[in-house]
Amino acid sequence: MTTETRTSAHKARLLPQLIKFGAVGAVGFVVNLVVFNVLMLFVLVNVPHKTLYATAIATLVAIAANWLGNRYWAFAGNRNTDATREGIEFFVVSLAGMAIPLLCVWVSHYLLGFQSLLADNIANNVVGLALGTVFRFAFYRWWVFSPERAAARDERRAAAHGPLPSGAHVTPRTAREKPPITGSTLAAAPDRGLIGD
Questions:
Q1: Left if phi > 0, otherwise alpha if psi is -120 to 50, otherwise beta: which for 80?
Q2: 122: which of 139, 147, 152, 153 lies 20 to 30 Å off by Cα?
Q3: Pairwise CA distance, residues 93 & 193, whole Å
Q4: How far, rounded to the nearest angstrom, does the alpha carbon of residue 195 sit from its chain's CA centroid?
Q5: Sign of the CA dihedral 122, 39, 60, 68?
Q6: Residue 112 and residue 19: Cα distance in Å, rounded?
Q7: Over the stretch 122-140, which tens digit does the pLDDT of each residue have?
Q8: Can you say whether the dihedral through the CA atoms of 134, 139, 141, 145 is positive or negative?
Q9: What is the value of pTM for the model shown?
Q10: d(CA 109, CA 126)
Q11: What backbone torsions phi and psi does residue 36 show, to the nearest 5 degrees?
């Protein structure tokens, strides 16, 4: 396979994944927006520093919704068999990404003095979300749900179980053929076969 063909194939896989990531992110945005504003307007009314608390809580709820969407749809072909490890990695990247809108809100609200609900929404849900989205996609794509990491993990597992038979080799998960889907296959699937590509 030439470099040009490999690059074209990479771009062909990247675009649908980016579109799915964007759709999951749109759901996460709505979740974040609703939770943030409900907290600001009804729950944390007289709480000092409510803007920071509302940002953190809304982001955590959106992270949970996004993990489900990314694991079972956007990056379904690259997800780990070890959901715990993947979930921890996703959560770590998401927490690091959460610092971005928190920093934007802090700069806008406390440093620049823009203290209206509109200013807080712009800092959190426009500037912070845009910067955080770029950061998260990069780390989800090339670390948490990385096909190369899945292939390396498969190779380590194969090496741990002894040498492979002559002529056998371990192929990356994305290159393997999928077995035919049957009732027993769906029942054994982590998502119970409810969400497909």
A1: beta
A2: 139
A3: 27
A4: 16
A5: negative
A6: 35
A7: 998 899 988 988 898 889 8
A8: negative
A9: 0.59
A10: 14
A11: -60, -50
In one letter, which amino acid is 18? Answer: L
Q: What DSSP designation does 173 have?
A: G
DSSP state of 64: H
Amino acid making up residue 61: V
93, amino acid identity: V
> What single-letter DSSP state applies at residue 152?
H
pLDDT at 122: 93
pLDDT for the residue numbered 74: 86
Tokens representing residue 73 in the block: 């749809």
Could you tell me which of 39, 66, 34 has the C-alpha nearest to residue 50? Answer: 39
- Residue that the structure tokens 């849900």 belong to: 125
Backbone phi and psi for residue 167, each to the nearest 5 degrees, phi listed first: 85, -10
Query: Would you state the structure tokens that stand for residue 164, as one six-digit string?
Result: 């492979």
Give the single-character DSSP code of 45: T
Helices 3-38 and 129-139 cross at an angle (nearest 10°) of: 140
Q: Coil, strand or helix: which one is 110?
A: helix
Q: What value does the mean pLDDT take over residues 26-45?
A: 93
Question: Structure tokens of 169?
Answer: 């080799």
Amino acid at 42: F
